[in-house]
Write a structure and sequence with these properties.
The chain is of the alpha/beta class. It has one domain (2-156, 184-269): Vaccinia Virus protein VP39 (Rossmann fold, 3-Layer(aba) Sandwich). The protein has 12 helices and 9 strands. It has helices at residues 2-11, 14-20, 25-41, 57-64, 76-88, 130-142, 157-167, 175-183, 200-210, 228-234, 238-251, 255-260; strands at residues 47-51, 68-73, 95-100, 116-119, 149-155, 185-186, 195-196, 213-219, 263-269. It has a 7-stranded mixed beta sheet, sandwiched between helices. Strand 6 (185-186) and strand 7 form a beta hairpin.
């Protein structure tokens, strides 16, 4: 089963995933850009659901900012690690629950429970069945209070095709490449786990079809996508980095940039 494959992958990836968003300037751009849009569109306080929150990087960060959190993930190893990080940061009083579950079924939570809902880094990308993805989004919306924001980020199909060109050109003649290119589906045969990579218009259509108002759509790595070495180099110069960050935030919502970014974010309002 796809879910078992994804769970097995992230069971062996807990510490790397915890470090991923802060390991260098390039990865931090995804994290900082997400936080930028959360600050812009989320209430200043309240109870948030971090659905598919992995080892808890966003839960810990947002709890430190004063939010109350519920962290949900389907991988027990992630949850065990998250509990340790929450305790280490002395944030137990801000994290109401750390629970095992999937974004497809949030039935443990009542309708209209949360002041904001997060599904960040790509949990929705790991749901290969289109109907199940639609169900997951409906669940994320259902548990949000009326008027509450929902923030979801996924992995991009156009960006991963660039990765195939630049890093794994030998794969373009393999059977999985055509399926990935034409459908966005990757079954996890080589290196990464099972994943659906989105086109930007496909991602946007999910929210439009769900009847929520899209407030923002952004490419989280933006025009820096797939230029990790160059981005990390410019980040070492404070003046250059300031100008480049300004450039990033001025361009990351451009439709062409959203589609080519490694991760795409949508913030919507119920």
């Amino acid at each position: 089963m796809t879910s078992a494959r994804v769970k097995d992958y992230y069971t062996g990836y807990v510490r790397k995933e915890w470090r991923r968003l802060i390991k260098d300037a390039y990865h931090r751009l995804e994290f900082d850009t997400t936080l930028h849009f959360l600050k812009k569109h989320f209430p200043k306080k309240g109870l948030l659901l971090d659905a598919g929150g992995g080892p808890g990087r966003y839960t810990v960060t947002l709890a430190q900012q004063g939010y109350e959190l519920v962290l949900l993930d389907m991988t027990p190893a992630n949850l065990d690690f998250a509990r340790r990080q929450i305790k280490r940061a002395k944030l137990q009083h801000k994290v109401a629950e750390v629970v095992e579950g999937t974004i497809i079924d949030l039935s443990r939570f009542n309708d209209n429970t949360f002041d904001g809902v997060l599904c960040l880094g790509g949990p929705l990308s790991h749901v290969l069945d289109k109907r199940q993805r639609a169900r997951a989004l409906r669940e994320l919306i259902r548990v949000a209070k009326p008027g509450a924001p929902i923030a979801v980020s996924v992995m991009s199909r156009l960006s991963v095709l660039v990765v195939e060109l630049t890093m794994f050109p030998e794969e373009v003649t393999m059977p999985h490449y055509g399926k990935l290119r034409d459908t966005g589906d990757y079954l996890g045969q080589y290196g990464f786990t099972a994943c659906h990579f989105f086109l930007p218009e496909e991602f946007r259509a999910m929210f439009d079809n769900a009847g929520v108002e899209v407030l923002a759509m952004a490419g989280l790595e933006g025009i820096s996508s797939n230029h990790r070495a160059a981005l990390n180099k410019i980040a070492r110069d404070e003046q250059q980095w300031k100008v480049w960050r300004d450039t990033h935030f001025k361009t990351c919502t451009h439709p062409s940039v959203v589609g080519l970014s490694e991760h795409m974010l949508i913030v919507a309002r119920k």
